Amino acid sequence: MNSVKKFFQSIRFQLTTILVVFVVVSMVFITSMVVRNVESEIFNVETKRLEVVTNQLAERYQKMYDGVAWQYDFGHLTIDEQKLYITKFLKPLFEEYFDEYRKNFPELEFGYYIPPINDEIVYMGLDQYKLDKKLTVIKYVTTKKMAEGYIFVDEPYSIIMGPVEDIKMEANKVTVYSAILAAIFILLISSMFTSKIVRINKGLKVLEQNLDFRFPSFGGEIGAIATSINSMAESLKRNIEEAQRNESLRTLGMFTAGVVHEVRNPLTSIKGFAQILEKKLQGKNEEKYVKPILRETYRLNKIVQDLLNYGRPSPLKKIKFNISTFIDEIISMGKQYAAGREIEFINNCQTEMIEADEKKCKELFLNLVINSVQSMGDKGKLIVSSARKEQFLEISIRDTGAGMDKDQLEHIFVPFYTTKAEGTGLGLAIAYRVVKEHGGKISVKSEKNKGTTFHIYLPIGDIRNEA
Ligand SMILES: Nc1ncnc2c1ncn2[C@@H]1O[C@H](COP(=O)(O)OP(=O)(O)O)[C@@H](O)[C@H]1O
Ligand SMILES: [Mg+2]
Predict the structure, then answer these.
(1) I want to staple 403 with a disulfide (CB 3.0 to 4.6 A). Which of 112, 254, 448, 466 is the partner?
(2) All domains of the chain in start order, with CATH
(3) How far is the centre of ligand 1, averaged over its atoms, from the C-alpha of 409 (Å)?
(4) What is the pLDDT of residues 298-319, one digit of tens each?
């Protein structure tokens, strides 16, 4: 029942019905016009023919009439004498003429007609003549009265209507064929059309389950809809991922803050005692055992510091500073980190003012620069540039390092995601958080073995006084 209703509501059915009705109505209209034209054309031709025939007949009759040298005054005869005259004398005479014409024009009927004598009409030469109007389509009567009567020629209705009926039959066939053709045509067209809609419908169902599904490109307006759905799905996916990321960051932050706090105190003691031991064992054989303890405690301390920063977000302390000078500082720290390697640092930033938390920004950019240096090995180039984008400042950090593949790119902002043996996987998570805290945006483009570019958008803030 439901599928029947669906069928009647379908575009395919509605289009087909509309087109078929349209075709039938217009064909019937055209047919009736054509039939009417043909009918009147035949009528005109036939009327002319009858006129010619009747006039010929009348002419011949006139000659015969003159030849007989009619003496009597028809009006002076009594009715019985008139009837007698007509049947006995005139009728046989005319029959000869009529027979001749009947041979030549078998489809016509000829007669001689005398106006009413005492309400009685006298017909001659036409035994089977019927007064039924429907049977006679054309009747031609001579205008000249001849021996008190008129000659007429009739053409039966069927003679005219025969061809007209044939035309009607043909036209009806054409109507039916065109309706069928139109229905097939529109069914084909609409199924091309609806098959796309059906595809969209199916695709949307798949999308409900799997946000990674994308429509293949197909042309036309429906293709444009599919493309829009694709980009909607893309941004929905991104939003969901970002929401999940934010949520996991928040939970993780709360969790790590607690643990890290507990680890920090014993770590400080270990570090303190290790330093004392180092002094005590200086120059002795056992000194080599203390060095790794210290190295590892420094590393642990760094991790603890990162985790603390990460887990215990503090309110922003915004100040105004020049981005170019700021990047200079970051770069000089990067150079220290990259000491001994052939890495070129270029600062292409404009002397642009920005209002932001400088300490957090330092952490943010240092993390990015150090990642770049780590990705480059012994040789490379790192370029930092800036560009004003309305109320944002875009700072881009481009390196010629190892680059990342798609799978890596999907995870880099997730806390603890690292591909390095000594990594914490917190650098980019912190960077991401700092950017978000500022109401900014971070994006990355990377190509394996070519290099990576991070784009950071930070709101410029209130810089009117310094501008
Ligand atoms: N500039 C870069 N070039 C190549 N890979 C990078 C770059 N920056 C980050 N990555 C990748 O992202 C991962 C996460 O970075 P991060 O959060 O800073 O953690 P960590 O540096 O401790 O590994 C890195 O392990 C590395 O795989
Ligand atoms: Mg890092």
Answers:
(1) 448
(2) 2-162 (no CATH), 213-313 (1.10.287), 316-467 (3.30.565.10)
(3) 9
(4) 888 888 887 777 767 788 999 9
